[in-house]
Amino acid sequence: MNVKKKDLYPAVLMFGGPGSGKGTQGAVLGSMPNLVHLAMGDIFRGLDKQTPLGKEFLSYSTQGLLVPDELTVRVFQQHVEDKIQAGKIDPGYHTLILDGIPRTVRQVELLKDVVDAKRIVHLVMEDTDALVARLSARAAKSGRPDDANVEVIRKRIEVYERETAPVLEAYPKRLIARVNGDQPPLAVLRDVAEGLVGFVSPKI
Questions:
Q1: CATH number, residue 82
Q2: Which secondary-structure segment (H or E) carries 16?
Q3: pTM of the model
């Protein structure tokens, strides 16, 4: 299918391992007037479980199975269309900040007819020990069991790096802005903002 660029959702893709601050940075960017932060995890959790789409999602999630790529993209598209119909997203004005999608190379392919990736922000944490310490501290404050075990944390980091590399490689290198996630949040935000200048239109 030949889809024109103007018919796609303009978007910035956020990539970053567990504890890299991806969600925090995405939420801050989403507070800007012309940017909308969409986290796939929040979209899944917000599904109406009584709708056909919600029931299909539950058939996988309640069994501990990964949600298929096709269903993930359908849920995403439906969520965006609902926001457009509600007047909360205007594709001619807003740029989407996507967090948690695409997660696989297959999703990249499925999104080619949906999303126009303007820029990809990759939050890189070189200091793994510092990252583990950050996640452990987060677990103590928020009671997140997935962050409480050091070995589990390291495994999550390994899985993320292994699964994310092919996804990033599916996009032109010129679109990727590598940002040092080891810095304090404000310094990370500064570098993220600099990486978006010239790629996200300053819409008024």
A1: 3.40.50.300
A2: strand 9-16
A3: 0.86
